[in-house]
Amino acid sequence: MKRIGKQTICFDNPPTILETASIVGPKEADGPMAEYFDQTLSDEFWGEKTWEKAESKIIKETVNRVITKSGIPANKIDYCFAGDLLNQCISSSFGLRELNIPLFGIFGACSTFVEGMCLGSVFVEGGGANYVLCATSSHFCSAEKQFRFPLELGNQRPPTSQWTVTGSGAVILAKSGEGPYITNITPGAIVDLGIKDGNNMGAAMAPAAFNTLMAHFQDTGRKPSYYDAIITGDLGHIGKDILIDMAESKGYNIRANYNDCGVLIFDKNKQDTHAGGSGCACIGTVFSGYFFKMLKEKRYRRILLMATGALMNSTSSQQGETIPGIAHAISIEI
Amino acid sequence: MEPIETPKEYQKYVDKKSPNSPILKNCFNAFWVGGLICSIGQLITYYCKFRGADQQTAGTIVSIVLIGVSAFLTGLNIFNKIGKFAGAGSLVPITGFANSIVSPAMEYKSEGYVMGVGGKMFTVAGPVLVFGISTSIIVGLIALIFI
User: Fold this and answer.
1) How many CB pairs under 8 A join A and B?
2) What range does the domain containing B40 cover?
3) CB distance A85 to A79 below 8 Å
4) Looking at residue B2, what is its pLDDT?
5) Between chains, do A150 and B104 touch, taking CB under 8 Å as contact?
6) Residue A164: in which H helix or E strand, if any?
7) Residue B147 — pLDDT band, cuts 50, 70, 90?
8) Mean pLDDT (chain B, rounded)
9) How many Å lie between the alpha carbon of B131 and the closest alpha carbon of chain A?
10) ipTM score of the complex?
């Protein structure tokens, strides 16, 4: 493991992504990615009394599923990195409290999934662990309750607003295996270009994604064409356009191979999701469900996975603060 | 495009890039749904008067009926669909006020009846109450002094 350039870590013995699992809610099950998820739920409660409990159950069952699919007994997994959007990350802490695996609770808003994989891969490559589990979740109803208005309130959503994905994605990283491998990680710095509108998260996070993307290209000397796909987490339709424009302004054309999980997970016209999906589970489920399978089938050989997060809460918004964005990138190759 | 350096430049660029709400369509829907709700209220008033109620009693009955119906529709998960379609059309009449109290009461029921339903019931309607009552006091004082 060595540092290259300003902020990228290059692995000598790249950790393998051994297995993934994903469970999504009913709206995602109606979307274009439905067939790739391990399980789709028919309602948001999944037999629980509250949305918070439902979200905990979703992450718990997703983790159980990835462990079962991998064939690795739970007691062989050395560490777990998990986080979510609810205050003090209760979904993951409550969902994983019976797991009995040493846990790092992490918060990077919607960037948590890749943040966990960055940390996990360093643990594995550094010799600290043979197997590491990374998981995230988000839930439309619990997120709306915490960040916006009650669901039954009869208000209108602006066209720039995004739809929090209900679901959970989990991966197991291993010291050795047949790939796909995490070859590089580029953790990102906070970038805040002064966006205050909580209904325009894509615009708030795009500058951070741009910053991390530029850092990754400069550190590794790679060009956009090196990757079969460059995938961001939840910039949505507006943030995606902004990132394309910003990259172009620095001479990088990512138009051909760039897409965003928030754009992919919902059908904007049929599902009334406005600017697209968001939430920790957006990239978590789309990577675990779709891209991991594509890598396994070698339809994609090199992808850059970049999760984006908006580091705000409802208090900071009400106090008129701007929204700091963050983005972490990992390159996955097979 | 030119590279963006300052928040000001970025805000300008984002404003250009972000689609606006369909204002004309929203206004039209708000107009006819709001008008329809008020017409229903007026019809109830006429009916009450026809049955022998005076103006004030009829007005009270209208409020009770509209509040009752919108609270019920909120509980059935229907009012938010009307609100999404009509915006201010269903929000500004008393129907919107009822919805703004019932919806947090339902949402926070999971945190108990006292601190959940009781404590959070007015999170949305609270500002309307505070500023509505404050304004009425000021107007009342002006009326008392000058009229």
Assistant:
1) 103
2) 23-146
3) no
4) 77
5) yes
6) strand A163-164
7) confident
8) 94
9) 18
10) 0.90
